[in-house]
């Protein structure tokens, strides 16, 4: 997921957690890795570009794109493996 043409947010599953990688597009290298609880299967960007939202199992994690830090995590009622953000910032989470 591209934020501003400069940074790319990507997730990959690992046995001991799942890193959410922040990649500098121009330098083509990972500049930061955040460890979230489980595999981040869905990523979405808020309409203003301020937050990257990651669904990771029974949790929704918000990453502040200005600080590249986890801003908040919320528990989901069901398993979330897909996410979308509408232009009015309504968050839609889907599952299996």
How many DSSP helices? Answer: 0
User: What is the overall pLDDT average?
Assistant: 80
Please compute the radius of gyration using only Cα atoms.
13 Å
Note poorly predicted spans. Answer: none
Name of the CATH architecture: Beta Barrel
The third-level CATH topology is Lipocalin
CATH class: Mainly Beta
Please tell me the total number of domains.
1
- For the biggest β-sheet, the strand order reads 4-5-6-7
- Give the structural class: mainly beta
Question: Would you count the extended β strands for me?
Answer: 9
The coarse overall form would be globular
Keywords:
four-stranded antiparallel sheet, mainly beta, 9 strands, 96 residues, single chain, 0% helix, Lipocalin
Your description of this structure?
This protein has 96 residues and is mostly beta strands. The protein has one domain (7-94): Lipocalin (Beta Barrel), CATH 2.40.128.630. 0% of the residues lie in helices and 59% in strands. It has a four-stranded antiparallel sheet with strand order 4-5-6-7, with no helix packed on it. A hairpin with a 5-residue loop joins strand 4 and strand 5 (51-55). It starts with 6 loop residues before the first strand and ends with a strand.
Task: Sum this structure up briefly.
The chain has no helices and 9 strands.
